[in-house]
Give the backbone structure.
Amino acid sequence: MGDQPAKATAPLRWRATVLFAALAVLSIFANAPLSAQEAEHLTVKLGNETIREVAQKYLGDPDLWAEIVRASGLKSVTDLRTGLDLKIPATAISTANKALVDANGQIRNANQAGAQVFAHENIVKAIALHDQALTRRSKSDWGGTRKLATESYGEATVALEKSLAARDRAAEALVTDRHGNVEGQRPQDLGWRGLQLQSTLIEEEKVRTLSDSTAQITFQDASRLRLNANSNAIIQRLRYDPLKRSEEAKVSLVEGDFYALLSSSNTRASFNVEVPSVNANIESGNFWVRNDNAGAKFTNYDDGAVEVTAAGGSVTLGRNEGTIVRPGAVPREAIAVLPPPALAGPANDAIAFNQPPRLAWQPVPEAVGYWIEIGGDQAFARMVTSRFGIEMAQFEPGTLPPGEYFWRVAALDVFGLPGARSAVWRFVLTADKDPPFLTVRTPERDAIFRAASVPVSGETEPGARVTVQGADARPALDGRFTLAIEAQPGLNKIEIVAIDPAGNETRQSRSFVFMPDAQSTVSFDTAIPSVGPKHFLSAVETISLGGRTTPDARIEIKSGTAVAASAATDKAGDFRLNLPLRAGTHAYEAVVTTSSGFASSETFSVTVDAAAPRIQLDAPPPRLTVKPALALRGRTKPGARLLLNGREIANRNGSFEDNVELKPGVNVIELSASDAAGNVTVEKWQTQFDGTPPAFVRSRVVPASGGRPMLVIEVEAEDASGLAAVAPFKVTAGGRTLGGHLRFNRAANLYQGTIAVPDAALADAKLSEIELIDDAGNRQTFTFN
């Protein structure tokens, strides 16, 4: 849309430009001196001229000097000297260049004969072989150049012969582009058939497009007609004059619309458009036609005129003018169509990733709709989308395969006439699902910094955007980036993100520690024995020191310049170590070196006290007692901690006094004294508490046998703490009470004894009372009837 009348299709114009340029260059080599073509190598002596001048003289191109050096067997240009025989590969180069010139000329002849239409595959192959020959020539492969150029000439000759033979037949047109459903029907056909690419169209053939479909018809003179959706046309006349090389065509539009880009009037005899009751004679090379129930519409976008005739009236349309022909009416006077819209976005030559961009343009005043076309080439010879009647000034293309696309827009006025076409903009759709390359060089993982400014650097793929904690790092053109960030004391974690133009992301994280140079404070465990701030005690020649300081650091304990002990702190800063000691009191230095290398220190002292406190009682505890409480008094080391049977008792400047509650039986009394250095003295005693008097078990009283009248008395008793050696007793005999003492026979566990009684009373003598006493002093008197 907006194109000037075309003299050839866009591919033909481009190819011709390339080939003519190649012809101009290669003609230089075709005109090389004849002597350079008479032998495979021409031998000349190098005079005062430079090697480039020699190459220009004999090969027609100063840049071919390296070929002379190579053919002469020289290793380097520095080996050249006056009088040296040079071998010039004139024949190989000239024959290769001549083959290129011949192939180029034959390609031009074939194109002029219509090879793009009648021998498309052959001419495309000929051009491709010619391009390959040029590539071989740039690599100084003269044999390969000549071979490919000769093959190109052969393919161009076939294309020329096919084209000349085709021009002997009736003119034809080709379907050179189709989108959606396109059908054709020849006069002899009973029904419609599908039209594929390169389908041949003849006179009286009908062509129609269905919904969302378009078709491009290319005539022999390279004129193009684009049939839009839901259109039906008949190629009524199609003639070609081989002598004048001009074509005569007449197209009848039954319904729908099409626009045409016609070739130059030099190669076109006439082009006529007919709709029911309307006829149009075309001199324009760029116009649009529509026919529906409301009538016919024409617009002209070229300086050549379009004459519309109907119902005895006519109107001639100039550039950017249109008309409407109602059924049975004369054409309306020329109407100026709307100006072209200004395209807004995406920007021209934009690259879209993974999905097509939304196409937008500036609204045109008085426009009631828009017509957008998306093509696969700049000439819109390969139509992708053609959408008529869009209401908004934007369009979503939908799903498109990756590739190069061109688009343009025309505004529609209240009559439905499309205005002048906009500029043609290009966008490229690329499939990119791969995340971008990203390397982070600094900071290194788990690095430690002593300065707050930390450089973040690395590399990503060119064109990608990099952020560090959300801040733009602005990579250079080669993808390298550097950004300084301010760290916070302690552990820092940052995220580096690379985003390519397609929106794919790569993320990397880095953790590092910022440790400002600051004095480390050592807090020793409060459980360490001490006699004052940072003055510790130990009962042995090793002390276990623990505490907390800077995390992930190293702590060394120095005695003078020597390191006596060391340890690493954990993530919380805790440490523990064993420090060997010497007798007496000595000073030490605790040196803390952080992970960043900063060191600080503080001093402390340790006293070795190996003397345990003594315990002296005023009186030792009794072995046996009848008292339920025992008083314990004595002296020890001032400040020592006293535990009496696990219970702490008061130490009053070296003196102590406390009571021990006793339980029946044997009681163990333990008293420990421990000083601040950890020295401990433990004393133990046993005291039996017996508060229960002996128990009477049984007694036996019998007369002694023979001799004096005597009573033998035995008493069995029990007691937990032991029985006394004697037990007073009384006996009644004949009205008298007699008394004595029984002695305890430990072997028999019996009290035994005798007592003399009158003979007359011996028979009725009885034990009437006994007093039992235990070792603890408990006593009880038992009386008997």
The domain at 173-336 is CATH 2.60.120.1440 (Jelly Rolls).
